[in-house]
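Quick one - inputs below.
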Amino acid sequence: MTLAQYLREKECMTGTKVVCAEGDCGACTVLLARDTGTDGKLSFKSVNSCIIPLYLIDGAHVVTVEGLKTEQDLHPVQSAMVECNGAQCGYCTPGFICAMAGLVEKTKSDNKSITEKKAKNYLTGNLCRCTGYQPIINAAMAIDMSKAVLLKDRYYDAEWLEEIKQMKNHSLMMNLGDKKIFLPVTKAEALKAKSEDHDLKLIAGSTDIGVVINKGKMTTPKTMALYHIDELKKISHDKDFLVVGATVTLSEFEDYVETLVPELKNILHIFASPQIKNQGTLVGNVVNASPIGDTIPYLLASDAFVVLESVNGKREVVMKEFYLGYKTLNMQKDEIVTAIKIPMLKNGELVKLYKASVRRDLDISAVTFAGILEVENKKIKTARFSLGGVAATVVRLKDVEARATGADFKRETFEDFAKMIPSLINPLSDLRASKEYRLKVSQNFFLKCFDELVTEVKA
Amino acid sequence: MSVGTNVKHDSAISHVTGESVFIDDRARLQNEVLVGVLGTPVSAGVIKKIDSEKAMKISGVLGIYTGKDIPHNKWGTIVSEQPILAEKVIGYMDEPMVVIAATSYEAIAAAKKAIVVEIEETKAYLTIDEALSAGRILCEAPVFKRGNAETAISSSPHVLKGDFICGGQEHFYMESQASIVYPLENGQLEVHSSSQHPTETQHVVAHALGLDFSQVVCIVKRMGGGFGGKESQAAHFAAMAALVAHKLKRPARLALTKDDDMMMTGKRHPFKNHFEVGFDHEGKIHGLKVQLVANGGAYVDLTPSILDRALFHIDGCYYLEHCLIEGKAVRTNQHSNTAFRGFGGPQGNMTIESIMEDIANFLKIDSFKVRRANLYGKDTRNITPYGQLVDNNVLPELFDKLHDTSGYEKLHKEVKDFNQKKNGKLRGLSMTGCKFGIAFTARHLNQGNALVNIHLDGTVQVSTGATEMGQGVNTKILQIAAHAFGIDPKKVIVMSTSTEKNHNTSPTAASSGADINGAAALLACEKIAARLKYVAHLHFSGVKPTDKDELPAFDDKVNTDHIVLENESARHKGTDQKIEWVELLKLAYFNRISLGDYAFYKTPGLGFDKKTLTGKAFNYFTNGAAVTMVEIDEYTGEMKLLRTDILMDLGRPINPGIDIGQVSGAFIQGAGWVTTENLFYNEKGKLLSHSPTTYKIPNIQDTPRVFNIELLENHSNTQNVHRSKAVGEPPLLLGASAWTAVKNALSYRSHNEIPQLSSPATNEIILMELSRYE
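Output:
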């Protein structure tokens, strides 16, 4: 049972709507607080309740649209939406309201103000078919922040927080008829469980599996979720590596890399909606192994490592050896991915990451591209390229890299790369794009890469 | 005075708090049954056998029904030919075939897998061309002919020929098709449906089950969006739920998933239109021939009317002196295409706007000049191809004003300069217009009725045939009522639409909801107001009821022109005597003068002669224009809207705030249709883009970076309630400006060739066209 089903069917709280049941429309958005921030208070983030299994909210606090107004007053987000005609048919409205409340929660906590850009970014995961969005944008800009009582303050209860903390110190095994769910609190427990039962399916944010289950294409009789394990929540870096733990969400990852790898931040920005990024994890994106996984081209090009652990020990596999074929991984049955280790960019390394999709934001890619280059004295010193969406896995372009090394840094060189592409990849035609389009875009990305780099290299 | 003010949407508060109740939000009753629908597995074929024996044994499954279980398994708004459940011949892929009643969705899913169907597959006709060459004509439109197009074209300085091709569009109303049916005593049914047409839903349900119309009540509180998709196509899903309720004598709930909804229901009609146009050096059209072909899908549905409207809008905003316009629709093995905001109008209008763009590209002059040269005139060149006078024509001032306020010439120069830089980005600019005919082209639908009840505390309930789908029709009607009584709009509620209060209602469609139902409500209010003024007149004149005698009965011959209802009271304009609203109501009530009334309205003056194909097809026209600037990434073909300026002529709006929301929503929906919304079918005719993951409606980042919407001041529309104009559909046509702007952008790289562009202009279409120029 998903959180949305529970709310609607068991609690009869029908403000939360389900439209697509795949996390793509935002009508089911609720606010979820799983952890406390530095202020010791819960940090509420917008998530898609339609794809979250109920067991993934153990020890969390959920606020739905019903919980935003007080006896007397509408939440400032609600007042703004009323004033600006932000609701027409009303079906998407509760989702927008919750996503906007998430915006207020974050912005006010950071002592910042809402800009139009920020508002749009927070609402990228919510579809509306009536308004054309302009009234909603106007509403977001009209929110009276001075009147906003933050949910983390309004619902603050020290006793209850303590209770949650205690709850999270105990691992939990649920046997529900033919279904088994395990929520360990230590890595050792998790590894042991996986070694004892190889069929135990790991679930992180459920942003992909949740969809597959909803559409009746999969059942998950035995699952394990790692979100109570503190050490897997960590993200850190030193001069060599950025290490991202198994349950670090894409939002946390995006925030963390903002200054470290701005290009990566940009691609994460259009990766998915805030709701999805608040649930989904980097490790989930890697293990899901989709040929169109948006983070993979960079990880592949940067020779990142996948950290695998089992009761028998730990090993690190470089990304290009991790994918053996379509959704086939270099992983033992008892292994768990506990982290991704991404090499830090060297001084002078330039990065270009691109994504082409039918709609720019919140869309699954047709083609993705990553290029990491060093240019010295008008020559390419090193070059690493990868492309997604053009084969069964994201691919490294070794032949192009070989040709690039030592070549002149000029447009003709990149045009030459583009010419090589048709012989190196053989993309498919599907509903997102034709083979011809994928080829053409793959080629053009090399030209774009040069056209953009040439100004940076000069500078 | 509430008409003309920005009263908030009547559901605004309950929408933002999540308290608004939609069909599937209704609490489940203890004995309620869930209803699922199994679709056909092929696009064309014959059903040999449906074996549900195994499926019936699944725990929780209570009933499995096929077309054979429905007494009258045929429906259709224009022609009764579409099966509610495909019984023998399969019309399209995923056509409803089996209805499953169960206590859980898990049981329904299991039953779907366990039902065994034997099918003999036959050849499917999936495209317009395939159907045309097989002679599968669904209907033909009357030919619009004026002057001699042939001669005018051949004697023109320039001639262009080509095809305009546009795809379909999924409605993507957020609330998928949904109905709950409660069985009542004596075979009666109470149907709650997300329907734009409660009367048709009532009729289809009753007919299907062999009930009298009077035994079925259809109630519509609201819809989570409709856009035409619930005009005809809500009815048969309600009938499926009704079938279960009728058979099992238990409440039955049918709420389609988004995937099922997208696969099973009809969409906007794709068109393929061939044109031949003759024009002079200034771009003025001398003669035009167009043959329109629509993909009707598997069944007639509303296709003939939609095709008619496409023909009625082929002129766009432009005068066509010599023209020959022919149209037909073909029958394919696709979901039966249906009403969608604009109803054929967008496909007709966009054809001529595409032609305008082509002429400009051919002559290498700016497209605004071409459009301006062809615009309908005020005193001359003001008769449509079907002989209707374009009276009170505001198009010239509207085009000129927008040209000015948008800074068109400055933008045009900016675009030109920008494109010379060749920095991997390409910009385009275009202005298009709309002149949308308001009225159902089926004359009998231009009628409505309203019931108004005033209660003794001064509050008012209004019921009409209009259904609320977000467009704010309830709000406008309550404003009209509040205005008529001179009271605070907060005192007026518009009630759920129900076929027991309002009979034989027309669909809430053709942008006419507020026009027809608002006018009917006003008539009903005026009838009551006349009596109240009469009571006030007596009161001010010192006539008092006694123990023996009540006030004299209402006499409509008594002049009450000196009485005005305003500020919650009645006032004598001469003496300034006043009586409070509630006191007045009490006085009327205790003297047995009715506080409720009912009225009937029909749009006057419509007179289109179907034999001569001339006359007043429309009550009036809603006009508008939009300037859009786009930017294309030349590496990927990705496109974004940088700026849109819209100027709309909405007469005197009843609620400008609501109307501007309609304009922005319709424009974006139109822009989506012509850019990212791509219906993708596999070779077997299966729709693969059946959810938002794969079917891309615009999201918040797709709204133009700069988006200005202004309304033109126009007090001339005496033909409609409070001189307002209908707004729902017309601005959707302006979305075409995004597409013509792409065409304009491409012309900067096409080496003097006229860009070849079909709609939707997806990234792929754009990039492939760009690479053709390399």
